[in-house]
Predict the 3D structure of the following.
Amino acid sequence: MNKETPFKKSRIKKGIYVLPNLFTTASLFCGFYSIIASLKENFVVAAITILAAVVFDGLDGRIARFTNTTSKFGAEYDSLSDVIAFGVAPSFLAYNWAMSFYGKWGWLAAFLFVLCGALRLARYNIQIGIIESKVFNGLPIPAAASVVATTVIFFDYAGVEGKFHDPSMIFFVTVLSILMVSNIKYYSFKDLKLLARKPFMTFFSLILLLIIVVAIPVIVTFVAMLGYAISGPIWWLAKFGQRTRRKAKEKKNSSVQYMEPNK
């Protein structure tokens, strides 16, 4: 009895930080509401709430670091919230919107998205401090969820009303799932120093970008998220090509050096 009392008092005294966890809860709520909207076939609303979850998810960590209120509880809660908001919700949306017509292949693709998202989060949690912070190892789950959400919004903008009959969505969701658990590197944008001094043209370019976003937000967000998803494979192919050329050059130089004494 006496040994348990100090432990209980210490556990109660620690508590949890309210502000960052409120933003995490808001992200979780958006993910859950997206599932409800998908069930009611309000696909655009479901997609928009996923994007709102992405915003709240981005804010909770930054607020925790800014206010020095990071905690192990917050990190675990954030991961569990992400599984719902960026794993279950977008897979539900993709399945109800375009993949339910194809029987088991549709729901298997949806499950694969959830599975790979959960594995991606688990791997990320154990690789914190191991992988350099300026890159992500695999496509981040919020980005994969955003690709699904912006695709639905884009097709609605293009005139596709209601459900979308096309088996390509199964392939599309499967590729996103594989990218999440791959070792392909993605730029994390964590080394951007927006508070530091920048050239005038950088500031002007950002203003032009904001104007374009305001003018055609649906197209810009869709292109941006899809472009980010394919940037990893393009980056990998570029590096693979560089390594191949470098090895070929080294092999050529070594063969030339070997032949020179015989001349």
In short: DSSP finds nine helices and two strands in the chain.
